[in-house]
Structure formats: C-alpha cells, structure tokens
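Worked Example 4.2. Consider the chain below.
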Amino acid sequence: MIKHYLKVAFRNLLKYKTQTVISVLGLAIGLAFFIYGLHWLNYETSYDSFYPEAERSYLVYTQDENNKVGYFRQVILAANENPADVVKSE
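Applying the procedure from the previous section yields the following structure tokens:
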C-alpha cells in the first residue's frame, strides 16, 4: 500500500512541476530560516557561559551624556550583590 502511495505522489510531482518547484523552494527556505533561528538562539543563550558564575553576569548598556556615545560593558557580581546597586555605584 505504501508503494502505491509513493507511486501516486511521484506521478503528481511530475504532473504539477510548477507547484512542485514552488513547494520545495518554500520548504527549503523555511527550513533554512528555522535552522538559522535555532543557531542564533543557541548563540544568544550561551553568551559568556564560560565564566564560573555566568548566571551572575550582566551586560549593561551605558550612554555617555556629553557626546551621546553608547557602549556595552560587562558587570560580574559577587554572590550577595544586587545588580541595581552595583550599576548605580559605578
């Protein structure tokens, strides 16, 4: 029975060539974007995970008030520190 289903499917693929090309291209593009999204998610969630206490590491965006230039800096906290207090004191 499966052999029959595959035979019918293959015949339909040959019969409707334009629809087949559009479907296969859409599937390929969608799969490529999905894999890229998974790769990006993995990169973002593993950022600076090599530090011993990576869960206590924060990336802070700071903007200079004089020349309006922003930059990122990393703040690593001790076990009992509050992130807001550390950023305010610096």
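Residues 54-89 form one domain. The radius of gyration is 26 Å. Compare this with Example 4.1 before moving on.
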